[in-house]
Specification:
This is Acetylxylan esterase. It holds the Pfam family AXE1. The protein has 321 residues and is of the alpha/beta class. The chain has one domain: Rossmann fold, CATH 3.40.50.1820. The chain is built from eleven helices and nine strands. The protein has a nine-stranded mixed β-sheet, sandwiched between helices. Strand 8, helix 10 and strand 9 form a beta-alpha-beta unit. The longest helix is centred in the middle third of the chain and has 17 residues.
């Protein structure tokens, strides 16, 4: 195993704490984003599929900047649909229009948000990150890390919150039955959105990244957390400033403010998102929770079995509203 034993994970609690102005910071950030109209633009994409209709979506995210997404709807569905808003793992984007067909095939409206400035590591992306940044380690984890207002994840989390508004505004969607879902970075984004919105019906976070930063950089040498270590190796003496910024973006602090039912997963041999960091957010989560544990897996977690469990979980929580 790469981290604590199961009996230790059961009692582990993160030492992370929220800055005194955490809620004010995010309220001001989202209020500023709200001054920009969503300006949702949909263009149907000819995919050749007979069971799913796909739309290329553009909406205005942080700073009024354009963010892309795919919207997939089951063909012929009648009545308001439950919706899943999905966020993508580190380095990835929204992918190809023919990828990721599970959720629409299962009867959900599915909005898959692109990830600004990423989307070339392992899947396609179409959204630039239009913001100046001081020098950083390759990747995005240290982009603007010296102060919260300029940090990369302030922009990305704001995009993610507004993506829920996009989904809720789709005519075929039941606005009271919208859930968020993601794995790794996408799981961390899901926790952030859960802590920033009170209108979600469910949350799924597979092996979430961006949780319990103080512990993560001490127990793993794997990337992307290693980007923080690399940064501090060069920017000596900036540790306090860096970890102060990260506290505004830590999944532990968002989890403490979340209320929607949540499904987590953790893999006990995961060097990328060590299980103790996942449990740090899991034990801090203020709403009802479930955990799927994969003792013999690494960062892939439960793979398709995670998705199978999430399908049952989301059907249950979305049907109950």
């Amino acid at each position: 195993m790469t981290d604590l034993a199961p009996e230790q994970l059961a009692t582990y609690r993160s030492a992370q704490s929220a800055p005194a102005d955490f809620d004010d910071f995010w309220a001001a950030t989202l209020a500023d984003a709200g001054t920009h109209d969503l300006d949702v633009r949909l263009q149907e994409v000819p995919t050749g599929l007979t069971t799913i209709t796909t739309y290329d979506v553009t909406f205005r995210g942080f700073g009024g900047q354009d963010v892309r997404a795919w919207l997939r709807l089951p063909v012929g569905a009648t009545g308001p649909l439950p919706a899943v808003v999905q966020y993508v793992g580190y380095g990835g984007g929204r992918g190809h229009a023919l990828e990721n067909l599970l959720w629409a095939s299962a009867g959900f409206a599915h909005l898959q948000m692109d990830t600004r400035g990423q989307g070339s590591g392992w899947s396609l992306g179409a959204t630039p990150d239009d913001a100046p940044s001081p020098p950083q380690v390759p990747g995005v984890l240290t982009r603007g890390i010296l102060e919260p207002a300029g940090y990369y994840y302030r922009r990305l989390f704001t995009d993610a919150v507004r993506a829920v508004d996009v989904a809720r505004g789709v005519p075929e969607v039941d606005a009271d039955r919208v859930a968020v879902l993601g794995g790794s970075q996408g799981g961390g984004i899901s926790l952030a959105v859960a802590g920033l919105r009170s209108d979600l019906a469910g949350v799924v976070a597979f092996v979430p990244f961006l949780c319990d930063f103080p512990r993560a950089v001490r127990v793993t040498d794997a990337y992307p957390y290693r980007e923080i270590i690399d940064y501090l190796k060069v920017h000596r003496g900036r540790q306090e400033q860096v970890f102060r910024t990260l506290a505004y973006f830590d999944g532990v602090n968002f989890a403490a403010r979340a209320a929607a039912p949540a499904l987590f997963s953790a893999a006990l041999r995961d060097p990328v998102c060590p299980p103790s960091t996942v449990y740090g957010a899991f034990h801090a989560y203020a709403g009802p929770t479930e955990m799927a544990v994969w003792e013999y897996n690494g960062h892939e977690g439960g793979g398709i079995l995670d998705e199978e469990r999430a399908l049952g979980f989301l059907r249950a929580v979305l049907a109950g509203r």
